[in-house]
Amino acid sequence: MTPPIADSLYQQLEQILASRIDPQRIITQEAKRLAYGTDASFYRLIPKIVLRLKSLDEVIFAIQSCGKLGIHFTFRAAGTSLSGQAVSDSVLITLTDDWRGHEVQNQGLKIRLQPGVIGADANKYLAPFQRKIGPDPASINTCKIGGIAANNASGMCCGTAQNSYRTVDGMQIVFADGYVLDTRDPDSVARFKQERADLVEGIHALCQETLANSELTERIRHKYRLKTPQAMR
């Protein structure tokens, strides 16, 4: 069992965060933290700190600051999942409305979305081109792209053929240490392969080990052909 984190560390974290993040968006008041203690699930965890971040630089800074103090954190987009993965008893990171940018590309064949875009709004942007995003979760009028991608959301119509994993073309990823990879940028990919060679080689080794085990490989492929709505179990 992981030992509890001392309150003094959260106080230290708050001071560090306030050096670069507006204190108005660092929530520590008990009543407000209580309000953030639940999502669409029946679970309840009261966060010690709630962050409302408005930029990539703030996200990187928050992640690195938590990491230096050994404090765990959880991201929440809209919090519509029924499985409880958007609650935290530590640091809860949420996003301001500044993360709603979008860009329709190639006459609607692709769309670039920030994680704060609501799923239904993404479809509105694509409607003039008679297209829509692949996933169609029941909460699409509320859930956001960040959660849709993170949860590999699908839906009653798209099944597994057009879920998030199968329809994402590229992504900007922030790793746990704050390192940023943009899979759409060849220079970023090349730099990642060089600077994070140990991670790339480790993943490649796991891949080769899995492929060498035909029984395990077939089991994984079979599992990914099925829909597994965890919240309904």
From TrEMBL:
<protein>
    <submittedName>
        <fullName>Oxidoreductase/iron-sulfur cluster-binding protein</fullName>
    </submittedName>
</protein>
<dbReference type="GO" id="GO:0071949">
    <property type="term" value="F:FAD binding"/>
</dbReference>
<dbReference type="InterPro" id="IPR016169">
    <property type="entry name" value="FAD-bd_PCMH_sub2"/>
</dbReference>
<dbReference type="Pfam" id="PF01565">
    <property type="entry name" value="FAD_binding_4"/>
</dbReference>
<dbReference type="InterPro" id="IPR016166">
    <property type="entry name" value="FAD-bd_PCMH"/>
</dbReference>
<dbReference type="GO" id="GO:0008720">
    <property type="term" value="F:D-lactate dehydrogenase (NAD+) activity"/>
</dbReference>
<dbReference type="InterPro" id="IPR006094">
    <property type="entry name" value="Oxid_FAD_bind_N"/>
</dbReference>
<dbReference type="GO" id="GO:1903457">
    <property type="term" value="P:lactate catabolic process"/>
</dbReference>
<dbReference type="InterPro" id="IPR036318">
    <property type="entry name" value="FAD-bd_PCMH-like_sf"/>
</dbReference>
<feature type="domain" description="FAD-binding PCMH-type">
    <location>
        <begin position="43"/>
        <end position="231"/>
    </location>
</feature>
<dbReference type="GO" id="GO:0004458">
    <property type="term" value="F:D-lactate dehydrogenase (cytochrome) activity"/>
</dbReference>
<dbReference type="InterPro" id="IPR016167">
    <property type="entry name" value="FAD-bd_PCMH_sub1"/>
</dbReference>
<keyword id="KW-0285">Flavoprotein</keyword>
<keyword id="KW-0274">FAD</keyword>
<comment type="similarity">
    <text>Belongs to the FAD-binding oxidoreductase/transferase type 4 family.</text>
</comment>
